Task: structure prediction
Amino acid sequence: MAKVSVYNMEGKEVGTVELNDAVFGAKVNEHLVHMAVLQQLADNRQGTQKAKTRSEVSGGGRKPWRQKGTGHARQGSIRAPQWKGGGVVFAPVPRDYSFKLNKKEKRAALKSVLTDKVQSGKLVVLDELKMDEFKTKKMQAVLTNLKVSDKALVVIAERDEKVVKSAANLPFVRTALPNTINVYDILKAGTLVVTKDAVNKIEEVYA
Result:
């Protein structure tokens, strides 16, 4: 089992914690990680785009001029695609972009990115994260004490409004719970900041 340091909110090391290899020491499968990211992005697409084909555009029920003798190219309708106001040739229609990924594949992808954070030294474990007031400066101070200078995903064991709202105004910080973490958010975050209780819950859920 991998051992990582545990820090307090002042950035001082207060101990160590052993991580479960079933979650934080799994084999990194880049293909499954790629598929998990694709699935999440596809699920987020609205798929509501729509344009009219020539059969759906109103008007153009008769030929604009006779077939021969005018000197113009022959035309059948003013709603043909080459006319202004005409229909679109291969018009987009509403569709569902989502696709299925098996539960085992999703779990394997999540374990892969968690393992990668441990191996790259981008996992920071906090003994606890408590705020006595709604204060963005205090959340920023905690991250500064932990030497987190890039994007961060802060995972807490249970929803704490003071923590969530204190981090909400920081554009590079997101918060999550053990059962809401996902591959895409972890990859986007440069550093994964997890409380000790949240580590235990992640191991309970995904081990």
Summary: The chain has a mean pLDDT of 93. Strands lie at 2-7, 13-19, 123-126, 152-155, 173-176, 191-195. The two ends are 13 Å apart (CA to CA). The helical segments are 21-24, 30-44, 103-119, 136-145, 161-168, 183-188, 196-206.
